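Quick one: structure tokens for this chain, please?
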Amino acid sequence: MKYLLSACLMVSLSFYGQNPKTKTILGDEYAVNYKKESNEFEICKKMDSASECYKWIIENEDEFSFMKALDSVTEKAIETYKFNFFSEEKKLSELSAYDYSNIKIISSPEAFNELGDNIKLEIDKAPTSGFPKFTIKKKDNDNYVVTSNKDSIGNLTKETGDYKKAINSMLISYLNTNKATLGETITANVKTDFMELLKELYNTSIVKTGNYVYLTTKELTDTNSTKNLHNFHYLIKNKNIYVRICDVKDEKECDVYGPYNLSVPENEFIYSIINQHGKFKDGDTDNQEAISKVYHKLVIKKQDAQTSALKKEMNDSITNIFEKIENAKNTFSGQIVINKRAKLYHKKLIKRRALWKDKYSDLETHPETELIVDSVNIRFFNNRADNITIVGRLSNDKKNTKVFTNRMYSLPLREFNNRSQTYTLTDKEGNQYTYYYDDILDYLPYKKFNYAVKNAEIKIGDKDSVRVIERKIGDYFTGIFFSDFLGLNSNNNNNLIIAEGRIRIPWNLRNIRRWTWVDNITAYASVNLFSGFENSSRKVELDDMLDTEESSGTNSQKFKTDNFNLLVNNNIDAGILVTPLTYEWKGASTFIHLRYGLRFIRTGIEYNLKTQDTISVNNTPTVQETLKERKGFQVFSVGQEAEINFEIRPQSSVGADVTFGLNWFRANGTNKNDLGFYTTNNAPNLKLMANIYALTNSEKSNSGVYFRFGGHYNLGSYKVFPQMMVGYATNLSSFVNKLKKEN
């Protein structure tokens, strides 16, 4: 724990809190106050023209840090302040050498005319804290004793002449002889006065009530060998244990001990309780045994706390895993450099090249014309160079700067070093040339090398080498919460909430201009969440079933339902799709994906189990049905799905997916207690779905709103399952072309 300590002299005493506490110590008034907003407190000595003040800012917010700060405050005050001592300004460290030769007794002369019993002696300007009290006590009719507290310091008889002078001399001799011990006593008492003042501030302005829990009551022997009962309370906070010990006779007399680590050993705990505040007698076996019993009571508590702390760490680790990954230190997948001069080729020769010929055999360059590259801007999205802007000049027209952009197709990162990736430019005379990206850009290793690039925009200048930030795991994942607040699905409760997670892993296995083989793999999982909705929500209701065997365990009666009901009433929907072929329509900022994969759904089934009894009513047999039990099971369905997906990315903070698909399901597995359950109408379903998403604060986060419109249409039953959902999504980096410029 660090303390920020600053000392300053102020013109007037200022209190910036609400409950300043004051106390007179050795004739001077001191005030303390606490400012909760800044976790700061001050202590000031009030003077005639100015006040000497010290301020402390407690950086650590745990409860015990303030108790330690109080100790520091007291020590600083003792070392720094000058106290009123017999009308002189003295530091406490100077008292051990103080000369008491000039003290005077101010008791009235009449008190000494005839010495009585228990005459209290008053010394002029004597300090009020820690200074001994002197008394004359009568031994017999002729003899008296002068005492300091309980100790005898001298004797008097009736034959003594000037009693006052004799007693004054006796006190001076005693005080000068014991000045060192007396200085220590006064210092200890002043420290106690300060601690009481600060303790009052702590109890009224700072202490948090209700945190401590009663543990046990034990009898302890204090430093004066007096036995008293003490209540023990404990607080476990931030993996530390605090112990508060209060005198049973006065619950306000409490001290806080600690903090102790949860793994504190027993001997260390006992030693600390005895010595931290110096209240309990050291070496006392009864004290050690009593505190040992307290320790073992705490063992169970701290074990519970350790278990809870471990559970919390695990939960926090799972809950914040994506946040931690997102905030992890950047790593780099490679680096990009540009070549200052790039060759230009005859466009017609490249077009005539056959696929089976050597890539370089038919190339013919223009030796008189080269492309001089000044800089290149690259915008990455889903491991592609979505936009490549080349700023440069032709060697035969150096005065005119030109900008060349890949308007026809994007370039997957793994194709940077592939000689087949070309583009065309036109000079001022209308001549067309072809250049290779490989001649302009080189993607090189940097410590490690891969093609997983964070969505970002970089600029590469002449002789620059720009590192490309590696994509983090969290960049692939999107979490969404949907609400069917419009209630277009009449089969379900309008307050339906869906939690969905989607992950898209771009592969870009092979690219030929606008065509890409195995562009990406997409997986998703949706779970329907309920909050006190009616029992029929999102479940298939079957006809009542008779318990013919008077048993609810098994029944051979068959149930059936329309296969489409499994999709409409599902409570879990998951799938994985591979994209074998993708076409880029760059003019419309659209990728067209052909996808195929598997889809899994789980649906709840419920039915009423009834019994039939024949009873006689008016001598007429009547069958009476009785509801015996409401039962249910889950149906698991796995089906195939093929779709065409239009991935539309018109700008950096808005995106949309429009999907046309075909899927079909069967009840592949159930937990049905041997019921003869089966489905009818196994016709496929047409799917039309549009997802629209937009970032709400694109400068600060990747979160935003998510809309879903569409539904399924069954080709056999002609039923429709509409959906119109509104939700909130987090980490849309895989689904919205959200870009941050990286230097």
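The two ends are 38 Å apart (CA to CA).
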